[in-house]
Amino acid sequence: MAHRYYQLPSLTALAAFEAAARHRSVHRAAQELNVTPGAVSRQIKALEEDLGTALFTRGRTGLTLTADAEALHVVLSQAFGRAAETIQAIRGGNRARRVVLACTHAFATFWLMPRIGDFWRRFPEISVDHVISDDARDFQRAEVDLRVRYGLGDWPGESSTPLMTEMIYPVAGRGFAERYAGRGPADIPELPLLHVDWADAEWTGWDELLRRGGVPHGALAGRRFGTFGVVIQACQEDQGLAVGWHRLVRGLVDEGRIVPFTGLRIASPGSYYLSWNDKRDLSGPAATLRDWFLETARADDV
């Protein structure tokens, strides 16, 4: 009977395990690998039988890795990452100068797109592919090189560097502001509010803004939307108050399309960061993009 030279289990099973471990989800792994969740589960079960040990415990919030699984995942993520870098280098051409960047819809629309043309002009040899999602789990996709994230800068498996701080304040359309002129922060809970149902819980909404601003309130009514961009569009149409993130809405404020409402203003509890997989070094093009972000963010503070 022939034996594998490296005495490894099935590479298909290892790939299924690595994706499930990275996402902490069989369904997310199946989406990435373009197979059914049942196929991923079967591969993991076969790997567990091969190794003679359980790799996951399954709970209401997803998969939890055992100690053996954590050790295996570290090794596999490093090996797959290095293999991907080598394969891209062998393929050559534009793929070797390609960077995959992940960020939210709001950041892409309001901050990045008005500025990224400068990068394209200065570094035409580097191709930037964008993963734009409000679900932070998409940022864990294997092909993502660099991420723009909001939070406290501490994410498992990622290295990070601060990009920008942020300020938050209520904003309204000009007509809405005129209609409710003279209202103060204490009146905000009773006014029409526009809410964003973020997939990422680290983003600050009305409840936290008012609490940090010292404004007493109960349950907050209002309209709810899935994306920040739609909320800001509704705000411009005088449909209600929105939580304005200064870095994102400053251009609209400067143009007079929306206006700050009341004097309520707080420093956001988190900041924007650039992050990347701490199991592999940034490629040259990814490092160039990172440096451009840092340079552009410094100019944005002026």
TrEMBL record:
GO MF entry, a single one: sequence-specific DNA binding
TM stretches of this protein: none
Keywords: DNA-binding, Transcription, Transcription regulation
GO annotation terms (biological process): DNA-templated transcription
Keyword DNA-binding: yes
HTH lysR-type domain ranges (all copies): 9-66
Superkingdom field: Bacteria
Keyword Transcription regulation: yes
Family that this chain belongs to: Belongs to the LysR transcriptional regulatory family.
Record-given protein name: LysR family transcriptional regulator
Organism: Amaricoccus solimangrovi
